[in-house]
Amino acid sequence: MITGVQIRSARGALRWSSQDLAKQSGVGARTIKRLEQFDCIPPGRTETLSAIKRAFEAAYIEFIGGPNECPGIRLTRWAL
C-alpha cells in the first residue's frame, strides 16, 4: 500500500493539485487531503488507496520501498 508521504510526493512530481488527482482517480479532493496528512499508510479503504495508486501509475509514477522501508516514488518516464 502507498503512504501519505508518497501521495504528496507523487502529486508534487507531477505538479498535480488535489483536484487534479481527484479527477484522475475518482476519489474526492477532501479525501485526498485527509489521506495526505499521514506519513504512514493512511487509514481508509483499500479501494480508495488503490484508485489513487492506479492514477499515479498511469501517469508514470512508480512507488518504491515499503511503508516501513524508505517509501518513495520515481518517474518511470518524464511525463510532464
Quick structural summary:
Helices cover 49% and strands 16% of the residues. It is built from 4 helices and 2 strands. The longest helix is centred in the middle third of the chain and has 13 residues, at 46-58.
Could you characterize the architecture of this molecule?
The protein has 80 residues and is α+β, with helices and mostly antiparallel strands. It has one domain (4-75): 434 Repressor (Amino-terminal Domain) (Orthogonal Bundle), CATH 1.10.260.40. 49% of the residues lie in helices and 16% in strands. It is built from four helices and two strands. Strands 1-2 form a two-stranded antiparallel sheet. The radius of gyration is 11 Å and the shape is globular. The mean pLDDT is 93.
List keywords for this structure.
single chain, 80 residues, alpha+beta, 434 Repressor (Amino-terminal Domain)
Mean of all residue-level pLDDT scores = 93
Largest sheet descriptor: 2 strands, antiparallel
Sequence stretches where pLDDT stays below 50 over 5 or more residues: none
Query: How far do the termini sit from each other?
Result: 25 Å
